[in-house]
# Entry
Amino acid sequence: MFFKKEKHLSFDRSRQIPVIRSSICTGEKTAGFKDMDTGKFEDICCIRSDKDLEEFMKTYGISREEIKTEY
# Structure
């Protein structure tokens, strides 16, 4: 009877790109968006497993091909 609607948040695709930041030393990964003009990174969530990454992609409507990984 009551269904949970999927909540899609948005970001400015003309100014920001989705990025996974990965630490070389610890392997810690953080998902967020990088401003193409300034290079500033905005943290959104910590990625601890593939499930966290899938949730990030589903929330913002991003495909795996769109996400860059930076070290």
